[in-house]
Amino acid sequence: MSELCYFEGKFMPVEECRIPVTDMLIQRGVGTFESIRIYNGRPFGLTPHLERFENSVKTAGINTSEIDIKKIETIIREGLARDDCPKEGMVKPYMTGGDINNPKGHFPKPRFFMIFAPVASAKTQDEIDNGIALLPNRMYRPNPLVKSINYLFGLIPLGQSDGSYFESVYVTPDGEFTEGMTSNFYLVQGNKIITAPVGKVLKGVTRGIVLTLARENGFEIEERCPRESELAKADEAFITGSIKEIVSVVRVGDTTIGNGKPSPIARKIQDLYTANRSRWLE
Question: Is the pLDDT of residue 1 over 70?
Fold first, then answer.
């Protein structure tokens, strides 16, 4: 099934959706978005995704009077009810900076559009069976509280690598792991799951669900940044995201995690996530 777009008050094929080259999304990379997974025609974690979208728009200096969460929710449901809308996939609302280049960081006339798209699995069977490798990206992520369209600084190190890495992961100059380019990152030591706190990382919707399920099932959670010095001693590692769900990490850079095989805890978390999915379908 092809992609569907909502733009300027109507639904249309995505190839008919156009924004001008003067938009600050293109000129300066000013834009925020969300990726909301759709299962059998129902959005997953819709409320926290839209709350985070609203916060990203506000923090980015984009005019919040142009955003109406209830209206966006209505548009999503109208789109999902259409015959030409994928029922297994994702919906991605965007708010751009609009055409006014304001050097003081305020964008009074933004554009809103939304894309409904089918989604293939974000992980291959080989990645499920054998795990993935992450490439350390030695920098602070620019403003982790905004889900920005600008992924350039996460992509640059991947473009300079040998192509064996699933994605990059941010490591601060003092050796703290924060988050992946498109995911949250976790180390496992025994029954303890360690992951960076919100504020140092984006408030991941899947992250929140995973931590809820982990606590409910007897895991200890420590919200602090895992350190690079802990990698070699860790039992396991994994990442999470709305599209990829849970993926086991077997190597970070040149460091093998645990025994170099997919972790049983990541598999258990994936099983819990799948079994409890209906709790967060809206």
Answer: no
Backbone torsions φ then ψ of 43, nearest 5 degrees: -75, 145
Q: What is the pLDDT of residue 129?
A: 87
- Which of these, 79, 80, 54, 59, lies nearest to 69 by C-alpha position? 54
- pLDDT (mean) for 115-120: 90
pLDDT value of residue 211: 98
Give me the mean pLDDT over the 156-173 stretch. 96
The pLDDT assigned to 63 comes to 92
Count of other CB atoms within 10 angstroms of residue 279: 11
